[in-house]
Amino acid sequence: MRRLSLALLTACALLTGMAHAQPAGFAAAKARGELVVGVPYLAPPPVAGAKIRTPDGLDANMADKLGQSLGLPVRLHQVAAADAAAALSAGQVDVVLADSAAGQPQAVAVQPTGYGTRPKAVIRSDTRWRKPSDVQGRSVCMAEAATDARKLAESWGAVVRTYRVPSDALVAVREGACDIGLVDDTVWEPLVRFPEWKKFSSTLAPDGARRDRVWLLPAHDAAGRAWLADEMRAWDRAGAWKAMTAKWARDVAFDVYLDQEVPDCHG
């Protein structure tokens, strides 16, 4: 009987500890059984038979990782930063990932992610283009979601071409249909480390503003804000950004390989 009582006490203590370990906040998401994350751009679903390719940026990866920490599946919803307050107030989303915290009302809390980027060029190593001024009149390609990259290329006087996904833009660069590709600077280095990208490891002098990503959530959710701040510190300690950018580069490099080397089964 004494052993049984001890076992029961141990089990209760474990269960209590598990309960305490559950993240606080995000009550609506937990009640729904799903975390809804607002992102600036959501690519339309591919048509039947279309190739599945890696989307631009880390938004989907960041949302998935947040959902994993909360123990919830994730659904993405396109929300512009200007519409974040209304979407959060209406309960359409639980949290919004944005490029900037500018212009948000007091009802919206801002949590920096610690992650920021700016566009960086992917160029053939045998070219002489090294400064933004060298790009005037040249074709510069990027994913259609990369709005900052597009604005930057337009400021250079480049001929801008956008593609559905990053790998399509990079294939155009590799095949000579485009002079320069633009990706986030955080993923440039892990991408050009691959042997097949050494011939495309030149770039331009840094230009354009750094874009720091932030989470936006209801200011009244104090528990959620505290948990999210702790979570971002944990991501930083664990090297999450390096891991996510390395995975993105690997996935996009594989997408390009499939496009260039593997016949399309759909014709």
UniProtKB/TrEMBL annotation:
Residues 34-252 form the Solute-binding protein family 3/N-terminal domain. It comes from the Bacteria. Keywords: Signal. InterPro entries: Solute-binding_3/MltF_N. The keyword Cytoplasm does not apply. Residues 1-21 form the signal peptide. Coiled coil: none annotated. Gene3D superfamilies: Periplasmic binding protein-like II. PANTHER family: MEMBRANE-BOUND LYTIC MUREIN TRANSGLYCOSYLASE F (PTHR35936). This is Solute-binding protein family 3/N-terminal domain-containing protein. It comes from Achromobacter kerstersii. The lineage of its organism: Bacteria, Pseudomonadati, Pseudomonadota, Betaproteobacteria, Burkholderiales.
